[in-house]
Fold this protein.
Amino acid sequence: MTVNVGDKAPNFKLRATDKTEVSLENFRGKNVVLLFFPLAFTGVCTVELCTMRDDIGTYQGLDAQILAVSVDSLFTLEQFKNHQNYNFPLLSDFNKTTSRAYGSFYEDFVLDMKGVAKRSAFVIDKDGIVRYAEVLDNASDLPNFTAVKETLRGLG
């Protein structure tokens, strides 16, 4: 499935590193930056999430909640979050349903790995509508953070 700008964002229920269930519906009335990343503790994924961590004030000023999703177990994500001091939720899509729903999924990845989230960025507005969608085929590329912030600024 592909999620496009103007679509209603697919809802999800995923476990965060604190083992609570997080749903997109929990953030209705707030802008959401939804990031998918391939694997915890890898170079580009660490750069991506550290970039978001280090610029958290900008996103908070734009009334946006960052949520980062991978197919790693919540236990792995907990270690990754603690190791890097991430200041936003990391969510486990271990069953791979959310990555597939957003079209952010590699059936085949490097080193014969199957079923890994594609690096992607979505901006979802306060009403649950997708206002920005970027799904990257090359896992070594980073999302366009400038475009994400510009989209959020345009939402007021």
User: Anything to note?
Assistant: The first strand starts at residue 13 and ends at 16. The two ends are 29 Å apart (CA to CA).
